[in-house]
Amino acid sequence: MRIIHRPDWTISEARVTPEAVALARRTLLGGAGAALAIRPAAAQLSWFGTAKPLPARPPLPARHDPQFTGGRPLTPEEAAITYNNFYEFGTDKNIAWAAQTLPVSPWNIEIAGLVAKPRTIALEDLLKQESLEERIYRHRCVEAWAMTVPWTGFPLAALVKLADPLSSARYLRFTTLADRKAMPGLEQPWYPWPYIEGVTMAEATNELAFLSLGMYGKIIPKQDGAPIRLTLPWKYGFKSAKSIVKVEFVEKRPVGFWQQVQGNEYGFWANVNPAVPHPRWSQAQERLLGTNEMVPTQIWNGYGKYVAELYAGLKNERLFM
Ligand code: MTE
Known about the structure:
The protein is an alpha+beta fold.
């Protein structure tokens, strides 16, 4: 028998929510069908904030790019950095403290595959070659929560240039850290570790695709993917791989972590679209972290003017899943 292990947003709510909240909600709802709409608001009461303050983070100053405003109020920092998906540290949202064991220094990134000169580069050497900027982007998780965050980093296109890919390279395949000593989530052997994600060359060199090393003007918190993560604001958040250790240029389309887990629900493209529901819930609205306000989801998460044309010739692909 094939056992399918699903992400936490697909499992019984009692497993992801403190019992009291789950019981209260069950009484309120009297049925499972409406669960997603109310689950995050209730759960958030216990998830936001941690019992003790998280470690202070050094500032990471950078020029602010006024082109990217986020278009809505910033999510309060406390809300954004204490409600996470980082399965290497556990399957609930409250992993911020657990993630403090993530070893971030020294940090090397392997540049491999179809490139002129495969090599491993120390993060500090990479940063000597890139200039940092700050951009405010909306982030939309496939689970229908969203946040608006000032990210500090540099365009993914700059890394592609540095890597000098061969003309046969069609995709980038990102591999993230899988360190058994530091990451208790790796004890769950049914997940296909390490966490992998991929994009096309055209997506990677698009103006929006970003590598983030900071949040809210400071070094990125460990729980958000220190020391370096992808930020792809027009796609569902699972495409934005955290704690990247390897970037490979490949000919074959990579199969991402969630695509391996549940390929009929999480695909390669995963572009945001309110009109294409997830097989088990609507994507028409999203809940803003911090206020719990429900707002309409926007196609391409509102970034169509940058990315829609990338997909013009791909009518037969499952672009929104
Ligand atoms: N990257 C790794 N390595 N492991 C993960 O579990 N979760 C993804 C993505 N990147 C994940 C990951 C998902 S589902 C989302 S929504 C975002 O990270 C969440 O980013 P945040 O915790 O900074 O909000």
